[in-house]
Structure formats: structure tokens, C-alpha cells
Design goal:
Elements: H1 26-33, H2 35-39, E1 51-53, E2 56-58, H3 63-73, H4 79-83, H5 92-103, H6 108-119
Antiparallel strand pairs: 1-2
């Protein structure tokens, strides 16, 4: 589920049924988009292909590099989430565009250009404090 995924835990003794994992087709779009990799000031997101990480095929993010950047700037930059076309507001228009992007991954480059035009190409990363050479 990409950069928008956040792990949570619910503790219960009640029996639960598993929902099937939805096929979002976001990976095909992401392989063509790469906005998060281009926007990452720490270079923590690779622009290459997916790898198998602990049995799951995904992009390997360098969490240590990301966290070191957070520490250097004093806050979370979250540029990867800000530029991601999948993290736009949940409006009827964006639902239609997301469905189109999932159904026709070859439109990714066109949709990324449209996203750049509407939301801007790349937000600026937070500046490093002066004592860190920023």
C-alpha cells in the first residue's frame, strides 16, 4: 500500500475473519511514476525496481537514511507523501483519476504530469539548521 500505509495493532480475544487483500494495481503506476524517489532529499527511496524484502515484493526504502535526515532537520519532512499522487484528497475527482490510473497504468506519465501541473512539481525540503551547514 505504499507510503500511505501505517501499521497498527488491535488486541482482542474475539475471533476475526480476514478480508481478502484488494488488488490496487498501484505498483504498476508507482513503477512509472517515481515522484517519491525524485523528491526525497535524503535519497532514501530507490528509483529502481522492486525487490523481495522479508518475503514481500516491494521497493526497499533506506529507513536509516530517512531517519537521519529527520534528525538533521529536526522534523519529519514527509515529502514522499506530499508528492505521491495516491495521497491526494479523497474527492470524487481523485477517486475517478485513481481508478483510471489503476486500470490503465500506461497513463502514469501523463497523470504524473497532470499532478505536477495541479499540485506543483516538487515541494521544497526543510532547510537544515545553520549549525549543520544548511
Amino acid at each position: 500500500l505504499g507510503l500511505g500505509f501505517r501499521l497498527a495493532c488491535v488486541t482482542t480475544e474475539r475471533p476475526l475473519e480476514h478480508d481478502p487483500m484488494p488488488r490496487l494495481r498501484a505498483a504498476e503506476f508507482c513503477a512509472r511514476c517515481q515522484k517519491c524517489a525524485k523528491a526525497c532529499p535524503a535519497g532514501a527511496i530507490p528509483s529502481g525496481g522492486m525487490e523481495v524484502v522479508r518475503g514481500v515484493r516491494k521497493w526497499r526504502m533506506d529507513a536509516e537514511r530517512c531517519l537521519l535526515y529527520w534528525g538533521a532537520t529536526g522534523s519529519a519532512c514527509a515529502l514522499c507523501q506530499a508528492v505521491c499522487p495516491w495521497s491526494k484528497p479523497e474527492t470524487p475527482f481523485h477517486r475517478v483519476v485513481a481508478a483510471l490510473a489503476a486500470a490503465v497504468p500506461s497513463l502514469a506519465r501523463l497523470l504524473v504530469r497532470a499532478d505536477d501541473w495541479v499540485y506543483g512539481r516538487k515541494p521544497r525540503p526543510p532547510r537544515l539548521p545553520g549549525w549543520l551547514g544548511g
